[in-house]
Amino acid sequence: MANNSTKKSTIDQADVDRFSAMAAEWWSPTGKFKPLHKFNPVRLQYIKEHLCENFDRDYKNPQALKGLRILDIGCGGGLLCEPMAKMGATIVGADASEVNIEVAKIHAKQSNLKIDYRATTSEDLEAAGEKFDVILNMEVVEHVADVNLFISSCAKMLKPNGLIFVATINRTPKARALAIFMAEKVLRWLPEGTHQYEKLVKPDEIIAPLKKEGVAILDQTGVFYNPFTDQWNKSRDMDVNYMLLGKRVA
Contact 64/52 with Cβ under 8 angstroms? Predict the structure, then answer.
């Protein structure tokens, strides 16, 4: 999307370019997005559990999300969009990278799934008057140029009683050591430069703009990686990875 001095933007072009260059690997479970493939089960369970609880759905129903309009903002190659669509939701997948969107479209077609993918931003969707029952901000807020604009524009698109999920990395010394140094430089889980410490976001920096837009926080949880089971699990420790859930109440 075009960016100029008269209009605020959430786009960090360097991050968009970085992820665009890796776009072909989105659906490779052993490629550069392997950590997201590993992370997907715990975040999918978290999302589905809370959606079923708040919208009074049967968790065991394969089409439990039918009738819900969901926005996955910063959707990348569609790793969350596709399972949401399979559960019956009406999905809009948005990403600032046109390359990511093209990869997502191709994979959805191969999977015989109907997903509305768009190369756009949260602020442009909000300006167009879009409304959603659910908005997913998963592993994207640390890659935007203006966190307050991003969060507030998303919150404004929530329907009454709508839910917003945010997953990101805390800005703590522990996160610098584990999520950046260890993950990128030692274990090589991610390409160097995937995350910049100064762009990591503390929970309060997400909660404040949400509350300003009439969104109450329903839940907060940490997420940690267990090297012995090779799985991600929820945790009380929010010092590194964490997830938040908010609900529009005003």
Answer: yes
101 with 19: CB under 8 angstroms? no
The DSSP result for 141-181, as a single string, is: GGG-S-HHHHHHHHHHTEEEEEEEEEEEE--SHHHIIIIII
> What is residue 1's predicted lDDT score, i.e. its pLDDT?
41
List, in sequence order, every beta strand (DSSP E) within the chain.
69-73, 90-95, 116-119, 132-138, 158-169, 215-226, 231-235, 241-248
- Global pTM reads 0.90
The β-bridge relationship of strands 158-169 and 241-248 is antiparallel
Query: Which residue from 38, 35, 23 is spatially nearest to 184, judged by alpha carbons?
Result: 35
- Which residue has tokens 């999905």? 91
Note the pLDDT of residue 20.
76
CA dihedral 54, 213, 39, 178 (to 10 degrees): -140
pLDDT classification of 30: cutoffs 50, 70, 90 = confident
Tens of pLDDT, residues 107-138: 999 999 999 999 999 999 999 999 999 999 99
| CA–centroid distance for 98 within its chain | 17
The SS3 assignment for 248 reads strand
